[in-house]
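Aim 2, interim progress: modelling of the 2-deoxy-2-amino glucitol-6-phosphate-bound target.
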Amino acid sequence: MCGIAGCTGDSAAAEHVIESLKRLEYRGYDSAGITLGGTLLRTVKVSGTVDHLKKTLFSGDHRGTRGIAHTRWATCGEPTAENAHPHLSCDGGISVVHNGIVENFSELKDELSASGHVFLSETDSEVIPHLIEHYYDGDPLRSTALALRRLTGTFAVAAVFARHPEVIVCAAGGSPVVIGLDEKRTFVASDVQALSPYTRRIIRLDDGEIALLTPGAAQVYAAADLQPRRKEIVLLPAETVSSGKGGFEHFMLKEIMEQPVCCGNALKDRLDLSRGMVVFPGLGLSVRELSRVSRIVIAGCGSSIHAGLTGAYCFEDLAGIPVSVEQASEFRYRNPVLEPETLVLALSQSGETADTIAAVREARMKGAWVIAVCNVTESTIAREADSVIPLLAGPELSVAATKSFTSQLIVLYLLALYAGRGRRLPQETVLRLLREAGDIPALVRRVLEQAPLIERLAKRYAWADDLFYIGRGNLYPVALEGALKLKEISYAHAEGYHAAELKHGPMALLDEHVPVIALVDPACEAEKICGNIRECRTRKAPVIVFAADGFPPDGPAVRDVVRVPACSRYLLPVVMAVALQLFAYYFARARGCPVDRPRNLAKSVTVE
Ligand code: AGP
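Predicted structure of the complex, ligand included:
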């Protein structure tokens, strides 16, 4: 789960490759490295971020018209400078960056060691330059292809050779590789965002392809037999990435604050109030076709799965379609039954989550229609699905999902109304629900106005190392999401539970040191969750209530209450999620955590 970048044909190769690498840090940021140069290869590697690499590199010689670089999320071997990429061959004449996993690295390492190769790192990736060296006969393309054929697992690689001073060889085998071209320069990277400052002309390598890059040119071949492949050059839309924090201390806070606009984008052009309809241009499924769907399977990971769990309530309630929500990581390993009328929704902000990609492939192989609900429309999941619903949330750079989560909730809600319209929902009801949906941006804005209150509360509880989040109905998955948000950025242990489940075991952990965050919809089973809150108070647990306006005044005595605006029960998860994001943000900030880049994590999880 790493990012690779490279450039040939520009005397500022180091600057370009480092800039591309910065844009790939969402794939990992625990160590980084670069190889620069033509006939003399110079490699600099550090433990830490790309900024650290940049400082180290630019304090010394960084000349060269060719470079390859890597930002890492450690899988095999600790995040040390030795384990950072690029890795070199024994003679130092071949340098390689790798994204993916070499599953058979142990046996390859034994074999290569027996023939005299010496390894300097604990990584799986280091076998690649040694294998290439083993096969090298003067042809960089053939030796790389022969080496890659020996690997089992996944890879995206870029390799440079001291004996071929302008060439980069790159190849894809289960991990993405894009090539960028302009008249005099050629670039390679793990995704198009990394190339967008330099060129809009790109070639995407398919799995099983290998390419020889020279300044201003790229020749692509099938890796299996080195037969040339004709590849289309795609013109990317002009750059849309916003790279700054817009005056906010962290991307996460900026992205939380952007939500009124993002929610508006998720709704815009999809509400047809004059006809009381939802419209999804480019969906490829009409209301009638959708009404024939017998079951919906929602697959995703992390926050995306929480959005899916929330969406399931809408589909079952509004459209009467049975839904199962699947962890994408488990989906393809348990031989799921998909009838011809099963619709699969693949939820992913990044569109590059390995487990979700695998679920999409499994579902399509079994004949299901797959809709990707994705924020990155250029991503693998978006390209491989039968159709795509873009989240339109704009780039999300903080590791914690915020605006993409609320946008997913809105899209799923609209899709449930779209399906419900063809099944059992009368037009007047759809129209009323659509009008209510139009209020979401204003409702979210009202939650954001409460940031100072939520900040005070978060600071007051920032001592806590263990917390529970409880909810009922469609606020139960929001409790899971609230707990995930808190733990990933603050390193406090937080568990989300259905409120009724606490007494089936976890309640044994409650005492005055374990705060409970209770999510309350006063219009839905309020007396039940009030009972659950009393049970927690009886065990001396401090309780913080997040409730929609109307939280019963005769409810349990709790000191700390955050009131969010009352709204339809289908929209409350959006409003509540925003309040919980703020709580997690201020809690983590009070604990001095690196909010945007929590330890051990990456924005995009590209390994299974
Ligand atoms: C959310 O805050 C997490 N960082 C993480 O759980 C994330 O939602 C998960 O990795 C799935 O990512 P995706 O939506 O890009 O597929």
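Residues 1 and 75 are 8 Å apart (CA to CA). The two ends are 9 Å apart (CA to CA).
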